[in-house]
């Protein structure tokens, strides 16, 4: 029987010198003068992660994890996240904390324009500091551009957000947009640091809703990242064993690792299907989804988003997508799953929306031996069966994702935004009261609308009520149902 393993996770700051020509160092070291909140877990406390019985990873796999910034305990998550930036960045932290209040009072854009100055980001040196800063600026930027108090997305992002956001993301070699990795994997904390990192104990550092909806939406992928750690550990261990001579193979170890991966995948699916627990599909589609939209394939931003102080030409970046993680691409590469060329091209594009180190890990896997080739060559029926059971669990997760997308995008797309707004009337009344207190607010909105090109306003009238995306196109810019069904079918075809 597979037993649970207790891990100790110390949340301490990491400080590493930056070398632009090399991947950022992932090892932990102390740093003087680094301003952070108290650690989530003290030296005397244990943080429990309910993964399955830990098998000692081969030394070669551990070296790969070190090289590509991967955690044996939490997979592709940042294991030791920074929770507070140095004091000179206090204004960023304040804005991120108050983003919901300012949006409800229709004062967010005005506050950014009048109170925020450009802050020099060069003092941020560690990978963890920069990702935390990127998460803060990502939410501030998404809230500014997609502020629902106005007639459409802002065409220009002010320099006080654009310059540091672009600089930090350039150093991290990741696109400046609201990605799944930035908004979820770099934006998580624990309600109670003495309890396990279960879904109900995870919380978002920065949220775009007053209730738990946005937090729940972002913490589900965080929990799935944690649950994926034993999947990754198992597959990497199997991959290592299969590269040895057949005489050195341990059939029981290989089969047990596939079982461990299969069980963990099914638990990830269970987590995914809990989306409705604290998130209503109508609220997601009409209230939250606009903030996830990027500047690529966005009818409200036909010329892209201008980063003031960076470029006078609009930039087009994909919005938030569940595919912006190395979880499924790493499995697809190791199996391998043979996708349609259009899917391959899109997945390669998405690699620029995950950390550079994880992108390089996927490239490493792309050029290595595959599980199907090695297993097929062995002609071992027991291992083959265990592999196929693992694929069945993977296909089930893919199918469940299609079910979630149908519930949260396809069905709500046929509803009217006005119906959703009726359920938000109390919030709207409160917001209007705050607007009336600000004599400049109506003039600001009028000026904002006048600055939006007529072509854009025509498109907004037709499409903005549908979260300024067509109902069959995701925030990642793809015709998602075709995409999701294709990758599900390709996954199933990988069985031996």
TrEMBL record:
Compositionally biased spans, kind Basic and acidic residues: 422-431, 445-458
SUPFAM superfamilies linked to this entry: Indolic compounds 2,3-dioxygenase-like
Protein name in the entry: Indoleamine 2,3-dioxygenase-like protein
Family per similarity comment: Belongs to the indoleamine 2,3-dioxygenase family.
Binding residues for heme b: 401
GO annotation (BP), single: 'de novo' NAD+ biosynthetic process from L-tryptophan
Entry GO terms, CC: cytoplasm
Molecular function terms from GO: heme binding; indoleamine 2,3-dioxygenase activity; L-tryptophan 2,3-dioxygenase activity; metal ion binding
Annotated region (Disordered), positions in chain: 422-479
Keywords: Heme, Iron, Metal-binding, Tryptophan catabolism
């Amino acid at each position: 029987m597979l037993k649970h393993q207790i891990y100790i996770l110390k949340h301490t700051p990491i400080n590493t010198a930056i070398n632009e020509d090399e991947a950022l160092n992932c090892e932990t070291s102390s740093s003087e003068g680094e301003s952070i909140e108290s650690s989530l877990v003290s030296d005397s406390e244990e943080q429990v992660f309910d993964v399955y019985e830990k098998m000692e990873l081969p030394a070669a796999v551990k070296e790969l994890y070190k090289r590509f910034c991967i955690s044996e305990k939490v997979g592709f998550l940042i294991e030791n996240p920074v929770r507070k930036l140095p004091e000179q960045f206090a204004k960023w932290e304040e804005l991120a904390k108050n983003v919901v209040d300012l949006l409800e009072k229709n004062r967010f854009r005005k506050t950014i324009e009048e109170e925020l100055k450009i802050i020099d980001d060069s003092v941020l040196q560690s990978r963890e500091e920069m990702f935390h800063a990127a998460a803060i600026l990502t939410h501030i930027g998404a809230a500014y551009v997609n502020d629902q108090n106005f007639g459409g997305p802002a065409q220009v992002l002010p320099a006080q957000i654009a310059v540091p956001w672009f600089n930090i993301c350039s150093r991290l070699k990741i696109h400046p947009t609201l990605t799944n990795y930035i908004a979820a994997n770099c934006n998580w904390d624990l309600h109670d640091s003495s309890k396990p990192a279960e879904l109900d104990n995870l919380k978002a550092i920065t949220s775009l809703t007053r209730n738990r909806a946005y937090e729940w939406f972002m913490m589900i992928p965080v929990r799935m990242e944690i649950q994926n750690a034993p999947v990754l550990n198992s597959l990497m261990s199997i991959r290592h064993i299969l590269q040895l001579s057949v005489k050195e193979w341990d059939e029981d170890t290989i089969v047990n690792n596939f079982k461990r991966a299969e069980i963990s995948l099914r638990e990830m699916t269970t987590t995914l299907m809990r989306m409705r627990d604290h998130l209503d599909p109508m609220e997601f589609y009409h209230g939250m989804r606009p903030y996830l939209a990027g500047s690529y394939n966005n009818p409200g931003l036909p010329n892209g988003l201008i980063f003031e102080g960076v470029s006078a030409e609009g930039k087009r970046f994909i919005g938030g997508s569940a595919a912006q993680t190395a979880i499924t691409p790493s499995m697809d590469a190791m199996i391998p799953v043979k996708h349609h060329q259009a899917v391959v091209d899109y997945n390669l594009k998405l690699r620029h929306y995950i950390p550079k180190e994880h992108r390089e890990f996927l490239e490493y896997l792309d050029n290595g031996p595959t599980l199907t080739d090695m297993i097929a060559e062995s002609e071992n029926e027991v291992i083959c069966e265990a592999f196929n059971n693992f694929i069945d669990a993977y296909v089930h997760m893919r199918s469940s994702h299609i079910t979630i997308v149908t519930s949260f995008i396809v069905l709500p797309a046929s509803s009217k935004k006005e119906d959703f707004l009726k359920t938000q009337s109390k919030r709207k009344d409160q917001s209007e009261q705050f607007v009336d207190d600000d004599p400049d607010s109506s003039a600001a909105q009028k000026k904002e609308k006048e600055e939006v090109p007529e072509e854009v306003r025509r498109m907004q009238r037709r499409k903005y009520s549908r979260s300024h995306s067509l109902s069959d196109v995701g925030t990642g810019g793809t015709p998602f149902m075709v995409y999701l069904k294709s990758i599900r079918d390709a996954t199933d075809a990988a069985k031996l």
